Amino acid sequence: MAESALLDPAFPVLVTGAAGFIGFHLARRLLAEGFPVVGLDNVNDYYDVRIKWDRLKMLEAYAGFTFHRLDLSDRAAMEAVFDRYPFRVVVHLAAQAGVRYSLVNPYAYVDSNLMGFMNILEGCRHHGVGHLVFASSSSVYGANTRMPFSVHHNVDHPVSLYAATKKANELMAHTYAHLYGLPCTGLRFFTVYGPWGRPDMALFLFTRAILSGEPIKVFNYGKMRRDFTYIDDIIEGVVRVMQKAPAPDPQWSGDAPDPGTSAAPYRIYNIGNNHPVELMEFIRALEECLGTEARKEYLPMQPGDVPATAADIDDLARDFGFRPATSIQDGIREFVAWYRAYYGDGSPDRP
Q1: 256-271: buried (b, 16+ CB within 10 Å) or exposed (e) per residue?
Q2: Euclidean distance between CA atoms 42 and 64, whole angstroms
């Protein structure tokens, strides 16, 4: 399918995880630009559902938004959605998120991240979808220590079940690209933050604790580095990728298989800020925005976590002319302004 035909106001875009952090921002961007969106979400209680319903309320203000509350692992319900709407582009962002929760409730990850993705792939296959864009994660790099992380590196050593399901999604998508010619692009997101973010993420937890006068938990004794990526940069990258379905790579060779490309219409890209930041620098930027010094509780590394992430985004820049560039100072300032407007000064019973 030609690039110009993918995004068309006559055809709705399917966005799964529309009540989630990234899904909400993507749906709002598309709706604001005049593209109809069908949003799916099961609105589960992994974190406070109030922020999910508030996100949906903002999306429902747009005439072009249609929402279906359903579980992606519900095969019949997913088949009905694909039967009903003529999707050209599907953006699959729904997943059971969180590394640490996968140690507690592993079956939630199998149901959502594996069965749910299978239903997405089958729907795209049987209805001639022109481009499936799906969320992967920087967590797939697992035990890798060579920095920056590149899509051309092997990623066969995950250190959490969450990461393993995301790697499995990449393999499943490649199979469908190879067998059925389904154009698939996987996006490995790096530590996304910003307004309307997830309450289980560090920035949210830190802000809430500092404003409530509680200590923040600083894991690995603060010796962490993360490629924190602002939500607007993530969305800009996703929108650009949506409009260009991958083609087979004529240079790909099975003698020296490149994990980032394929002889099938399949690609993997990192979307990260390309500027890793030490956790303590991140905390200092937050303290400056809040005007309060945090009380810190230093703790060892948590199971399933990794000490550092850093994204090689050369492929993204080459193919789409885009590099995320929002500084943590600017990004945290925007988050804090939103947090104060949404929660006041951080009543601990709200998030």
Answers
A1: eeeebbbbbbbbbbbb
A2: 20
pLDDT of residue 350: 46
Torsion of CA 162, 329, 311, 132, to 10 degrees: 60
- By CB atoms closer than 10 A (0-12, 13-18, 19+), residue 40 is buried
Tell me which residue of 269, 184, 197, 280 sits closest to 232, measured CA to CA: 197
How do beta strands 277-278 and 89-92 pair? unpaired
343 is annotated as an active-site residue: no
Over 60: is that where the pLDDT of 68 sits? yes
Rounded Cα distance, 72 and 78, in Å: 6
Pairing of strands 277-278, 225-226: antiparallel
Q: Which of 46, 101, 109, 162 is catalytic?
A: 162
pLDDT at 4 > cutoff 90: no
Q: Is the pTM of this model over 0.90?
A: yes
Instruction: Round to whole Å and give the CA distance between 259 and 245.
Output: 18
